[in-house]
Write a structure and sequence with these properties.
By secondary structure, the chain is of the alpha+beta class. Helix content is 53%, strand content 10%. A 4-stranded antiparallel β-sheet has the order 2-3-1-4, with helices on both faces. α6 (127-143) runs antiparallel to α7, α7 packs antiparallel against α9 (187-204) and α10 (246-259) packs antiparallel against α11. Mean pLDDT is 88; it is low at 313-328.
Length: 328
């Protein structure tokens, strides 16, 4: 799992510029590659071993640590959804010291269901569809393995997951009008495909499939940065972490839905505090930050509030990302 996230950090760093270039949905702000990279980097770095502490051998525990770290530092829609994916994938793996085809299938299925449910208004043709396709493909292969827990069966399921994800990425262009008009595939979907191929590579001890992205519309290095020709999106992205009861969390989701879009709420951590409140990561796109922050503060005291203009790419530690000179 450490190798997987380390590989994913490197791969997303190398591909961040091209992912940014085709990022036009849900807003053309050209930062999906950067957001995914920084979120995966947080997950990977949370697993750096402490020489004075025994290394955890429980696969679920390792991924839970990584998922919580990713959630606390998640960037944008794509980073938040990947954090949800990672936290949920950890749950069926708890108590296990190795991955099998059946466990992979269960983890991918739990993760895609949780990611779809995190969004108030989930949209097909995004990384959600890629997660779902990967899970379905892995489950289909596992169903034919009759409980085989060998590495060979696991390899077949991983291959199927990546193939299913690739087919879903190609299909995204037909599912969203904005992508079809621009003749590009979904940036978040491509990022998720890369992450899944990194998992296959790390588990099976094989190289990444360099040809995997060949022919994807908009992904050739000579293709332009599509988002730069799009009109600027008005509004801001608001993110924070807050402790709320389940009832107040539902209220917050409903009230944010009324004033904004791309509402994502996901639980951080495994249980309630002494007052029965759970920790939540909140994400929303709104015309103006003030009403959203007011609503959030009316229900609890948020931490880690970030407000970013949707019209501009974020300005995170760009030296750490291979941006090819395009990221502003």
């Amino acid at each position: 799992m450490r190798r997987w996230l380390g590989k994913a950090e490197t791969a997303l760093g190398n591909h961040s510029d091209r992912l940014n270039a085709i990022n036009i949905f849900p807003v053309a702000d050209g930062d999906t590659g950067t957001n995914l990279y920084l979120t995966v980097r947080a997950a990977a770095r949370s697993l750096v071993l402490d020489p004075d502490q025994p290394a955890p051998v429980d696969v679920g525990e390792v991924l839970s640590i990584a998922g919580q770290a990713a959630m606390e530092e998640a960037r944008g829609n794509s980073g938040t959804l990947f954090s949800v994916f990672l936290c949920a994938a950890a749950e069926p793996l708890a108590g296990h010291t190795r991955l099998t085809s059946t466990l992979l299938s269960a983890a991918l299925n739990r993760a895609q269901i949780r990611a779809w449910s995190a969004l108030s208004d989930p949209v097909p043709g995004t990384m959600l569809s890629v997660m779902e396709a990967a899970a379905r493909a892995a489950a289909a292969v596992d169903a034919g393995q009759d409980g085989d827990d060998s590495n060979h069966a696991l390899g077949l399921a991983l291959d199927a997951a990546v193939e299913g994800a690739l087919a879903a990425v190609i299909h995204t262009e037909e599912q969203l009008d904005a992508l079809q008009s621009a003749r590009v595939v979904d940036a978040g979907g491509v990022g998720m495909l890369l992450i899944l191929d990194c998992l296959r590579s790390a588990v099976m001890g094989e190289e990444l499939q360099g040809e995997l992205l060949d022919g994807l519309h908009g992904y050739d290095v000579s293709d332009p940065h599509i988002h730069t020709s799009m009109p600027d999106d008005d509004g801001v992205e608001v993110m924070c972490t807050i402790n709320l009861s389940p009832l107040n969390a539902a209220t917050l989701r409903q009230r944010l839905d009324e004033i904004g879009e791309s509402v994502i709420m996901s639980q951080v951590g495994n249980g309630p505090d002494a007052e029965g409140n759970y920790r939540w990561r909140v994400h929303v796109h709104v015309p103006d930050a003030a009403p959203a922050v007011e609503i959030i503060r009316s229900l609890g005291e948020p931490s880690q509030i970030s407000i970013s203009e949707l019209a501009l790419p974020r300005d995170p530690d760009t030296d750490a990302v291979n941006t090819g000179g395009h990221e502003r």
